[in-house]
Fold this protein.
Amino acid sequence: MDKRIPRVWGRARQWWCAVGLAAATAAAAAGEVEVLHWWTSGGEARAVGELKRTLGEQGHGWRDFAVQGGGGDTAMSVLRSRVANGNPPAAAQIKGPAIQEWGRLGVLANLDDVAQQQKWDSQLPKVVADVMKVNGHYVAVPVNVHRVNWLWINRDALRRVSQRAPQTWDEFFSLAEKLQKAGITPVAHGGQPWQEFTTFETVVLGVGGADFYRRAFVQLDAKALQSATMESALTTFRRIKGYTDRNAPGRDWNQATAMVIRGEAAMQFMGDWAKGEFLAAGKAPGRDFLCTSAPGTERAYIFNIDSFAMFQLKGEAAQQAQRALVRSIMSPAFQEVFNLNKGSIPAVSGVDMKRFDLCGQESSAYFVATAMINALVPSIAHKMVQPAAVEDAMKDAVAAFWNDDRTTSADTMSRFVAAAARKK
Ligand code: GAL
């Protein structure tokens, strides 16, 4: 892996790791925090277990509010109704622009006192810190950075057809063809709209590059959303479907990962939460599976940052417990152990990446290096950049295109433009 990273990437990684930071400790009255999240798969549960443990060590209780459903759409609906009923949890997994939306409703807690004690402004990259603030005040804390544009590959499946990991779309499709002839499902797919959107944003990056991705999904430029490049991305996306199996519709993402783990399927397009599944199954990168950038995306990075927003609470003990959760999340020790299980990398600086595997080290180096060359882009499929109204409408258009071969690229691109117009 390291040989493929040019020297600048290695330097970037050193720089990233060199920034020091002090851990903070908490002294608090015992309380309980209710935490809404959607981490229910094997790897996710292991990671969230670390958060419970850390809180427990400080004498606080954890009330689990786990909502099934990868990608978090169901969790967000449940959260909306809980808050509407005047009964918010202490903390909820809320990401990207949604933090601002919730903040504007005046229901989130101000965390500036802890932020000052722990020096968050110097501990977090500015792009990340800005997302955690509403009107300049911290209301949320990041737990990790996921890279979305990975291709996960079963190593034995690759050996069986004597191929190397594909770097280009041509290599990808020729490999897929060989795998299919060898009786191995080339691509494990979970047929749910958020998973289709996850694959699609990766294809758009791989076909169009980071600048095109930004124009389309960040700026919502109609000329990009309806363009020859977008059409080519849609064509590539549909071609991938031909290499998935018939039972894909409705399948959860971790079931698709399990197919790759077992060798029933060879590859999966998915963010690095998939790595948590491989690790939980006792598999090792390099030996049993490969993490490789999806075709055409090696020098770019779609980021997806998980974070917890804190709701305003009544009562001293509850507030203390919430503060303890916040402090723990922002400590380097927690970020290390959590992310070792989750498949992601720490969001705070100062964590030694030595204990991370090759995929984690590569992600960390690429995060910094792609920022330097302006190829670090936010995930639209994972709620990093657009309001829910835009994201949902685009996701529906992508899913409709994937699921019905009669849907044309032209119609789909018109739907993208209509979705963009939902931005207020
Ligand atoms: C993402 C989330 C990841 C992972 C994934 C599958 O939106 O950021 O942490 O949980 O969904 O559930």
